[in-house]
Structures are given as C-alpha cells and as structure tokens.
Amino acid sequence: MNKKLVITIVLFFLAILFAQSQTVVGKWKTIDDETGKAKAIVEIYEESGKIYGKVVFILEPENKKKLCVECSGKDKDKPILGMIIIKGLSKEGSEYTNGKILDPKNGNLYKCYITLETKDKLKVRGYIGISLLGRTQYWYRVKN
Asked: Would you say which domain of life the source belongs to (predicted)?
C-alpha cells in the first residue's frame, strides 16, 4: 500500500513539472523573421487570465534607447524597452489567441496568436484580418 502511495505522489509531481514546462510564460529571445537576427528578450506573463509580453532587454546596442516613433496612442514616442508588445491573449486549446501584437519597428498593431512548437520554441503569428495575411516569427526560451 505504501509503495503505491509513493508512486502516485511521484507521478503527480512529475505531471505538475511537465505541465509547468509546457507554458508560454517566461523569457523569450525574439528572432527577426526577415533578418534572422536576435533582437530582444520579451517576458511573457499572465495577468487576470490573459497573456501579455513585455520587452525586458534589447540585444542590439544601437537600439537600446530607441523610441517607438511610429506607434500611435499611448505607445507613441515611448521607449521600446519596457513596452508591452503582446496584449490580452486568451488560451484556446493549445493556442493563445484573440489578442494583439505591436511591431515597434513600424508601429502597427496586429491580431496575434502564439503556440508552443516545443517547450523552448514559440511560434508567434501576427496578421491582418485572417491568419493567412501575416507573418510568423519563432522565439526561443531563455534559460535562466
């Protein structure tokens, strides 16, 4: 009886660890889909049941103090470092969708969905209208 209880407890904790490793929450290195260069570190976090992403580090020294001059509204002329670029995604099955993503390079706000390809590779798709009209980036989890 004790052996079964110990095995059950171990399996329970392994399941929890596996589930936690399968989350989009964490820090991700962004890769520009046009140049293939690493650009920034975005921290994805959950707040009030929604997913958000904030630029926490800019990898290109010449861009560390850049402002979002092309942005509109409250993001206009704000520093890109510290900016929330993923806004209000909701989990639907294995995807996070129904939110927006901001491209600080051109100031455009796009519909967005993100999906874990693997525990350390994130597919980020921004689009206009329907998902076919957009572009995809792959981001990679930053190991602490």
From this structure: Bacteria
pLDDT score for 133: 83
**Is 13 part of any domain?**
no
Q: How many domains is the chain partitioned into structurally?
A: 1
Token pair 């929450």 is found at 25
Give me the residues paired with residue 101 across strands: 86, 110
User: Average pLDDT of 29-36?
Assistant: 89
β-pairing, 108-118 vs 38-47, is unpaired
- Give the domain range for residue 29: 25-141
Q: Are 120 and 141 in contact (CB under 8 A)?
A: yes
pLDDT, position 144: 74
Q: The CATH number of the domain where 120 resides is what?
A: 2.40.128.520
For residue 9, report the phi and psi dihedrals to the nearest 5 degrees.
Answer: -65, -45
